[in-house]
Design goal:
The complex is a heterodimer of chains A (about 220) and B (about 300). Chain A has about 220 residues and is of the alpha+beta class. Chain A folds into 2 domains: about 5-140, 2-Layer Sandwich (60s Ribosomal Protein L30, Chain: A); about 150-220, ACT domain (Alpha-Beta Plaits). Chain A has 7 helices and 11 strands. Chain A has helices at about 5-10, 20-35, 50-60, 60-70, 80-85, 160-170, 200-205, and strands at about 15, 40-50, 90-95, 105-110, 115-125, 130-135, 140, 150-155, 175-180, 185-195, 210-220. In chain A, the strands form 2 sheets. Chain A has a 6-stranded mixed beta sheet. A 4-stranded antiparallel beta sheet of chain A has the order 9-10-8-11, sandwiched between helices. In chain A, α2 (about 20-35) runs parallel beside α4. The longest helix of chain A is centred in the N-terminal third of the chain and has 18 residues, at about 20-35. The two termini of chain A are about 20 Å apart. Chain B has about 300 residues and is mainly α. Chain B has helices at about 5-15, 20-30, 35-55, 70-80, 85-105, 120-130, 135-155, 160-165, 165-185, 190-200, 220-240, 245-260, 275-285, and one strand spanning about 110. Classes of the chains: A alpha+beta (about 220), B mainly alpha (about 300). Chains A and B meet through α1, β1, α2, α3 and α5 of A and α2, α3, α5, β1 and α7 of B.
Chain lengths: ~220, ~300
């Protein structure tokens, strides 16, 4: 089931005008910011479907940028996000795309700074609820509502049990988990949504596992 | 976890509790929060709704000038004693409009289930409150009852205008409100489900065609109709009227109708009222070459 909580229906508390195009957009931006780990220097925001057609009227543009600035959906600074981003040195480029996508409210966000880059695709499915559907070309499903660990690794036998052993040793319960890969034996991505807070030492232990190239922590 | 309205009603009946209580128990289980925390969270949302209505009734205008001030006009009209419709009905309409005028002006609201349809549930609650005199706890329960029905629609059809048209937004909100009114007025879980079914049946096929892509025209006035539809359907269900088509089948019909709606009528501002000569002219005036302001400047003053 896509919606799990009463507060997905009665909520979020937010700045208008649209739960999907403003609040949901802000949440997608904020997940991208969290996955990137810091304020990026540059963002390319590509809008599809209804997002591309109505982003001006709904304030989707400033909402996504507000998310990149780590603002919550009810932050009064939301409508001023474009100016604030400019002051903070975040360069933004918007693109509207004609391509037909699976969900009408789709956005692709590319983030860059000197050290890193990230590409993420998110959809806003209604009432402010979102799903992240793609990260660096890996298909995935991430709600952004739970703490999560994303493990970028080589597609080798034993890596899944090595990761889950670490979590088990720290008594962290897994709520949802999936593994995807681009090609057999190449880079793969593990997405693990957990119930508990993830401590630094857990991240350190996971980073030190062989065949693991990157660990991304998603805090909520 | 209940998957449809039939299961929701059955759970409430077999446990001999309100639908609100089933939603509260499920929320405690899913979130891991305590009962007090879950109730407290909804209490905060209720406070946001009260503040939004108050702000709207004091008069608020969006910066495009397309919406605002209608909630005040309606309150004054009610006070004049000339109103033809019932006071509770018109009060609900006025308070629904008030909330969405605040939303259009980029004020703080609570999405129920969406921002564009945020007026219906609080508008009806604060209007029937005048007659039913609920406790704070019962008002919070009203929101959990609404949530339970919205939860079923969200998981089985849609609450997104881009996916299912306005029937998915104001339609869902109206059905949620009708069911919650019935429960607050002392109706049974089954009657609440009948009210939801009757309401949704009257909202099927409603398209999402916002002028200039703004959540103003016709969204604010659709919340007015959503509120009056909810009160009418609640009264019908409380009078003992039932829906010939069961609630879950109405919800499924709504899903299928949404699926077959062309994209021009699903929040793209390309069809319906958005494509009328006046709709196009307004879009040009607001976002065209001669624009005098940028959207990011349209902050609630």
């Amino acid at each position: 089931m896509k919606y799990r909580s009463a507060f997905d229906i009665i909520g979020p508390v937010m700045i208008g005008p649209s739960s999907s195009h403003t609040a949901g957009a802000a949440r997608i931006g904020r997940v991208a910011r969290t996955l990137f780990g810091r304020l990026p220097k540059k963002a390319i925001i590509s809008l599809y479907g209804s997002f591309a057609k109505t982003y001006k009227g709904h304030g989707t543009d400033f909402a996504i940028v507000a998310g990149l600035l780590d603002f919550d959906t009810n932050d009064e600074r939301l409508p001023k996000a474009l100016e604030i981003a400019n002051e903070m040195g975040l360069a933004i480029e918007f693109r509207t795309e004609d391509a037909v996508v699976d969900h009408p409210n789709t956005v692709k966000i590319n983030l860059y700074d000197e050290a890193n880059d990230l590409e993420m695709v998110g959809i806003s499915i209604g009432g402010g609820t979102i799903e992240i559907t793609e990260l660096n070309s890996f298909p995935l499903k991430l709600s952004g509502e739970h703490p999560a660990i994303l493990v970028v690794h080589q597609d080798r036998f034993g890596i899944i049990s090595a990761v889950t052993n670490v979590l088990s040793a720290h008594e962290i319960n897994i709520g949802h988990m999936e593994v995807s890969r681009l090609e057999k034996g190449e880079m793969a991505l593990m997405v693990i949504e957990v119930d508990q807070r993830i401590e630094d030492k857990v991240i350190d232990e996971l980073t030190n596992l062989s065949n693991v190239s990157q660990i991304i922590r998603m805090v909520v | 976890m209940f998957r449809n309205v039939a299961e929701l009603v059955q759970l409430a009946e077999s446990n001999q509790v309100k639908i609100a209580e089933i939603m509260i128990r499920q929320e405690i289980e899913v979130s891991g929060l305590s009962r007090a925390e879950v109730i407290g969270k909804m209490d905060k949302n209720l406070t946001i709704m009260e503040q939004a209505v108050e702000r709207g009734l004091n008069g608020v205008h969006s910066h495009t000038g397309l919406t605002g001030g209608d909630a005040v006009l309606l309150q004054n009209y009610i006070k004049s004693g000339k109103a033809l419709g019932g006071t509770i009905l018109l009060d609900a309409v006025s308070k629904a409009v008030a909330t969405n005028e605040v939303n259009a002006a980029m004020g703080v609201i609570c999405a129920t289930p969406t921002a564009g349809s945020a007026g219906v549930v609080p508008g009806t609650l604060f209007a029937v409150k005048e007659k039913l005199n609920p406790t704070r706890e019962e008002m919070i329960e009203f929101l959990f009852t609404s949530a339970a029905f919205g939860f079923v629609v969200a998981n089985n059809a849609s609450i997104s205008g881009a996916a299912g048209g306005c029937q998915a937004e104001v339609g869902s909100a109206s059905g949620m409100a009708a069911a919650a009114i019935v429960e607050l007025a002392g109706g049974s879980p089954k009657q609440a489900a009948e009210a939801m079914a009757i309401t949704l049946k009257n909202m099927l096929g409603l398209v999402c065609d916002p002028v200039a892509g703004l959540v103003e025209v016709p969204c604010v006035k659709r919340n007015a109709m959503g509120a009056s539809n909810a009160i009418t359907a609640a009264d019908m269900a409380l009078a003992g009227i039932t829906s010939r088509i069961p609630c879950d089948e109405v919800i499924h019909a709504m899903f299928l109708i949404g699926q077959s709606m062309p994209s021009s009528l699903r929040e793209t501002a390309e069809g319906g009222l958005a494509a009328t000569p006046t709709g196009k002219r307004l879009e040009q005036e607001i976002f065209g070459e001669s624009k005098t302001f940028k959207l990011k400047d349209l902050v609630l003053s």
